[in-house]
Write a structure and sequence with these properties.
The complex is a heterodimer of chains A (281) and B (265). The longest helix of chain A is centred in the C-terminal third of the chain and has 13 residues, at 255-267. Chain A has 281 residues and is an alpha/beta fold. Chain A has helices at residues 7-14, 32-40, 55-62, 83-91, 104-115, 131-134, 183-189, 242-251, 255-267, 273-277; strands spanning 3-4, 20-23, 46-50, 66-71, 75-76, 80-81, 98-101, 120-123, 139-142, 149-154, 160-169, 174-176, 192-201, 212-214, 221-224. Chain A has 10 helices and 15 strands. In chain A, the strands form 3 sheets. In chain A, strands 1, 2, 3, 4, 7, 11, 12, 13, 14 and 15 form a 10-stranded mixed β-sheet that branches. A 3-stranded antiparallel β-sheet of chain A has the order 8-10-9. A two-stranded antiparallel sheet of chain A has the order 5-6. Chain A has a domain at 104-154. The longest helix of chain B has 17 residues, at 239-255. Chain B is globular and about 45 Å long. Chain B has 8 helices and 14 strands. Helices cover 27% and strands 22% of the residues of chain B. In chain B, a hairpin with a 4-residue loop joins β8 and β9. With 265 residues, chain B is α/β, with parallel strands linked by helices. Chain B has one domain (9-255): 3-Layer(aba) Sandwich (Glutaconate Coenzyme A-transferase). The chains are: A alpha/beta (281), B alpha/beta (265). The interface between A and B is large, with 56 and 59 residues.
């Protein structure tokens, strides 16, 4: 049953040292405010799952929260490389991290398998791909009916998923619209889930019946954080802050600049600043 | 069509790539140069082309080029938007895409692409973003077009990592791996148009853009280039093509606050 909490309480109750966690969002609805709270609480030794680790995982890796990253595309979307993640992989700063790399198809299938309660995902993929040689979790199975060889990867079963959404109602049902990504699957695959929302409304009576709704009993915790996806965007609320993505390329290029930026904008800040950041967008 | 004489190699690349697309195509669009080409095609000779971005947006018609594959405008202008698992399972794996349009960091003569690492995978010299959707785009789309600017560090004798499989070691390598789709059938660069040899599958230059010499193509390519016996000249951009591309880029620049990110083509 969904609890309405502060972001501080929701992260403290649901995210623990050593957890496997997915902060999901596919360009749209990326849970930046929740990731910043995890950084402030200094949670350690996390295994981070994400199709497209971008700025938030760059920040979490750079602040030393991660021991492993499971991913399929590690870039600053539309801008370039993830410099903090590269520094961890190439130079072990601030600590060495393990990586487990997949394709998007494999990651999406692994979340869906997790949501479906299956131990693995089966799909037609990785043919001729180099990742088969370097990732022992990419295996194959033979179709018992046709004999076709198919790729298999373990299902994602995170301890906890964090997502950002447009709205929750007073009962705790969650609405997601626009580019819905893999968030529904990530929540249903996880043992616990925290959803930050732009606003809490009385009910969903006037909405289209097929908007992506997570019933309140599938969600552990709901937190109202207006602007909580910034510099990503929330469809219907504010646009993507492209300048912030470009700025991150500069900030993340230097360890000292990064550390100072994180202190000022994350460690010494709180979730309430997100609303101001999206005012002009 | 009246042609114009004043255009850049990048503009020629984007326009030549756009011409390869038709109204009936269902195209899985990579970000960067492929995105510009696909939208020029839609705004000129192929208004009914279906453009799909891996964020789940199907039949999208953006007014400006997206900075990322998940920009809001892609969803707002799409016929429908589906979840990412659905995109990869029903639409890509289901065999509904006619053309996958990819860019490349490193490419070899058989159309194999590396966007994963430079150097050894476990001790990389440079860690690149990785494959994203490309490994399955390369094998599930009926055919694959590739577009990139020529440079010896991009077009190499041997790629460091097989992010996505083209024709492997050439010949019938795809068939031997049980891959039923055609793979790379076209490479469009800023200097030339290349097609795979029907037997060996090695990319062969079939057309050079106006003002380009064989030496220019060879000097910017890391393998010994083969030229077709019937080498043609790529028709230069028409007035309409060039105006469409330039207006699209100007709108994009204004929309993204004067900064174009990586979609400059």
């Amino acid at each position: 049953m969904a609890k309405f909490q502060s972001l501080k309480e929701a992260v403290a109750e649901n995210l623990r040292d050593g957890d496997t966690v997915a902060f999901e969002g596919f360009t749209h609805l990326i849970p930046h405010a929740a990731a910043h709270e995890a950084i402030r609480q200094g949670i350690k030794d996390l295994t981070l799952i994400r199709m497209t680790p971008d700025i938030i995982y760059d920040q979490m890796i750079g602040m030393g929260l991660a021991k492993k990253v499971v991913f399929s595309y590690a870039g600053n979307p539309g801008v370039g490389l993830l410099r903090r993640m590269r520094d961890a992989i190439e130079n072990g700063w601030p600590r060495a991290i393990e990586t487990e790399e997949h394709s998007h198809a494999a990651m999406a299938n692994a979340y869906e398998a997790g949501a479906a309660g299956l131990p693995c995902a089966i799909f037609r993929g990785y043919r001729g791909a180099g990742l088969r040689e370097v990732n022992p979790n990419i295996r194959s199975v033979t179709c018992p009916f046709t004999g076709e060889e198919l790729a298999a990867v373990p299902a994602h079963r995170p301890d906890v998923a964090f997502i950002h959404a447009q709205k929750a109602n007073r009962r705790g049902d969650v609405l997601i619209e626009g580019i819905v990504g893999v968030q529904k699957e990530a929540v249903l695959a996880s043992k616990r889930s925290v959803v930050t929302v732009e606003e809490i409304v009385d009910d969903f009576d006037d909405l289209h019946p097929n908007l992506c709704i997570l019933p309140h009993w599938t969600v552990t915790s709901i937190v109202e954080v207006p602007g909580g996806a910034h510099p990503s965007y929330t469809h219907g609320y504010y646009d993507r802050d492209n300048a912030a993505y470009l700025e991150w390329d500069r900030v993340s290029a230097d360890r000292d600049l990064f550390t100072a930026w994180m202190k000022e904008n994350v460690l010494d800040a709180g979730p309430e600043i997100f609303a101001a950041r999206v005012k002009e967008l | 069509m009246t042609s114009v004489s004043d255009f850049t190699p990048n503009e020629m690349m984007t326009i030549a790539a756009a011409r390869a697309l038709s109204n009936d195509d269902v195209c899985f669009v990579g970000i960067g140069a492929p995105s510009a080409a696909c939208n020029v095609a839609r705004l000129t000779h192929a208004p009914d082309i279906t453009l799909i971005y891996e964020s789940g947006t199907i039949g999208t018609a953006p007014n400006v080029l997206p900075l990322s594959i998940g920009d809001g405008e892609l969803c707002e202008t799409a016929v429908t938007t589906v979840s990412v698992p659905e995109m990869f399972r029903y639409w890509l794996q289901g065999g509904r895409i006619s053309i996958g349009f990819l860019g490349a960091a490193q490419l070899d003569r058989f159309g194999n692409i590396n966007t994963t690492v430079i150097g050894d995978y476990h001790k990389p010299k440079v860690r690149l973003p990785g494959g994203g959707g490309a490994p399955e785009i390369a094998t599930s789309c009926r055919q694959v077009f590739i577009t990139m600017k020529q440079a010896t560090r991009g077009m190499v004798e041997k790629i460091d990592f097989y992010t996505s499989f083209g024709h492997g070691e050439g010949g019938n390598h795809r068939e031997r791996l049980g891959i039923p789709t055609k793979g790379p059938t076209l490479l469009i660069t800023d200097l030339a148009i290349w097609k795979p040899d029907p037997e060996t599958k090695e990319f062969t230059v079939v057309s050079m853009h106006r003002g380009v010499t064989k030496d220019m193509v060879q000097d910017t390519c890391g393998w010994k280039v083969r030229f077709s016996g019937q080498l043609e000249e790529t028709p230069p951009p028409s007035e309409l093509e060039l105006t469409t591309l330039r207006e699209l880029q100007a709108r994009t620049e204004r929309a993204h606050g004067g900064k174009k990110g990586k979609q400059d083509a």
